[in-house]
Amino acid sequence: MEGKNLNLSIDGYVYCFPSVANYFGGDIVSGLLYTGIYKKEELSAFIDIGTNGELVIGNKDFLVAASGAAGPALEGGISKFGMRA
Predict the structure, then answer these.
(1) How far apart are CA 10 and CA 19, in angstroms?
(2) Domain contains 1
(3) What are the angstrom distances between the C-alpha of 22 and each of 16, 18, 19?
(4) What sequence ranges are listed for the domain RACo C-terminal (predicted)?
(5) Cα 32 from chain centroid?
(6) Are 52 and 74 in contact (CB under 8 A)?
(7) Residue 81's pLDDT is what?
(8) Is 35 helix (H, G, I), strand (E, B) or coil?
(9) Which of 30, 40, 41, 55 has its CA 20 to 30 A from that of 8?
(10) Cβ atoms < 10 Å from Cβ of 34
Protein backbone atom coordinates (compact mmCIF):
# COMPACT_ATOMS: atom_id res chain seq x y z
CA MET A 1 0.00 0.00 0.00
CA GLU A 2 2.96 2.23 -0.55
CA GLY A 3 2.18 5.71 -1.78
CA LYS A 4 -1.50 5.59 -0.76
CA ASN A 5 -2.90 7.90 1.90
CA LEU A 6 -5.01 5.74 4.19
CA ASN A 7 -7.16 7.76 6.55
CA LEU A 8 -8.33 5.21 9.11
CA SER A 9 -9.52 7.59 11.79
CA ILE A 10 -13.08 7.12 12.97
CA ASP A 11 -14.85 9.74 15.05
CA GLY A 12 -17.00 8.40 17.85
CA TYR A 13 -17.41 7.91 21.57
CA VAL A 14 -16.83 4.92 23.80
CA TYR A 15 -18.80 4.70 27.03
CA CYS A 16 -17.91 2.26 29.80
CA PHE A 17 -20.45 1.66 32.53
CA PRO A 18 -19.41 0.08 35.83
CA SER A 19 -21.02 -2.91 37.48
CA VAL A 20 -23.14 -2.23 40.55
CA ALA A 21 -22.78 -5.74 41.99
CA ASN A 22 -21.70 -9.26 40.99
CA TYR A 23 -24.54 -9.98 38.56
CA PHE A 24 -25.73 -6.43 37.99
CA GLY A 25 -23.45 -5.14 35.24
CA GLY A 26 -22.84 -2.12 33.09
CA ASP A 27 -25.29 -3.33 30.43
CA ILE A 28 -28.29 -2.96 32.73
CA VAL A 29 -26.92 0.31 34.19
CA SER A 30 -26.62 1.80 30.70
CA GLY A 31 -30.14 0.60 29.88
CA LEU A 32 -31.54 2.31 32.97
CA LEU A 33 -29.81 5.56 32.04
CA TYR A 34 -31.06 5.34 28.45
CA THR A 35 -34.69 4.60 29.33
CA GLY A 36 -34.80 7.08 32.21
CA ILE A 37 -37.17 5.01 34.36
CA TYR A 38 -35.50 6.51 37.43
CA LYS A 39 -37.09 9.87 36.46
CA LYS A 40 -40.60 8.70 35.55
CA GLU A 41 -43.79 8.90 37.59
CA GLU A 42 -45.27 5.64 36.30
CA LEU A 43 -44.04 2.24 37.38
CA SER A 44 -41.74 0.65 34.79
CA ALA A 45 -39.84 -2.60 34.34
CA PHE A 46 -36.53 -3.09 32.55
CA ILE A 47 -35.34 -6.62 31.75
CA ASP A 48 -31.99 -7.79 30.38
CA ILE A 49 -31.64 -11.48 29.54
CA GLY A 50 -28.19 -12.78 28.69
CA THR A 51 -25.81 -14.97 30.64
CA ASN A 52 -27.39 -13.31 33.65
CA GLY A 53 -31.02 -12.28 33.78
CA GLU A 54 -31.55 -8.89 35.38
CA LEU A 55 -34.81 -7.17 36.23
CA VAL A 56 -35.35 -3.65 37.56
CA ILE A 57 -38.77 -2.38 38.60
CA GLY A 58 -39.41 1.14 39.82
CA ASN A 59 -39.89 4.81 39.11
CA LYS A 60 -38.54 8.14 40.38
CA ASP A 61 -39.30 7.15 43.98
CA PHE A 62 -37.65 3.72 44.12
CA LEU A 63 -35.83 1.05 42.11
CA VAL A 64 -35.76 -2.65 43.01
CA ALA A 65 -33.38 -4.99 41.20
CA ALA A 66 -32.96 -8.76 41.01
CA SER A 67 -30.56 -10.95 39.08
CA GLY A 68 -29.77 -14.60 38.51
CA ALA A 69 -28.04 -16.99 36.15
CA ALA A 70 -29.93 -17.29 32.86
CA GLY A 71 -27.53 -18.81 30.34
CA PRO A 72 -25.67 -22.10 30.01
CA ALA A 73 -22.37 -20.61 31.17
CA LEU A 74 -23.65 -20.22 34.74
CA GLU A 75 -26.41 -22.83 34.87
CA GLY A 76 -26.39 -24.22 38.38
CA GLY A 77 -23.33 -22.15 39.28
CA ILE A 78 -25.15 -20.32 42.05
CA SER A 79 -27.40 -23.13 43.27
CA LYS A 80 -26.93 -23.83 46.98
CA PHE A 81 -28.87 -27.08 47.22
CA GLY A 82 -28.55 -28.70 43.80
CA MET A 83 -30.74 -28.67 40.74
CA ARG A 84 -32.75 -30.99 38.52
CA ALA A 85 -30.77 -33.00 35.98
Answers:
(1) 28
(2) no
(3) 16, 11, 7
(4) 42-85
(5) 9
(6) yes
(7) 65
(8) helix
(9) 30
(10) 9
Asked if 30 and 17 count as a contact pair (C-beta separation under 8 A), the reply is yes
Segment (H or E) for 34: helix 26-35
pTM, two decimal places: 0.65
Indicate the number of domains in the chain: 1
CA distance 74 to 53: 11
Please provide residue 25's backbone torsions phi and psi, each rounded to the nearest 5 degrees: -95, -175
Percent of the chain with pLDDT over 90: 32
Q: Contact at 8 Å (CB) between 54 and 28?
A: yes
Residue 54, domain extent? 9-85
pLDDT score, position 43: 97
Asked whether residue 53 is assigned to any structural domain, the reply reads yes
Rounded Cα distance between 70 and 23, Å, is: 11
Which are the contacts of 79, defined by CB distance < 8 A and separation ≥ 6? none
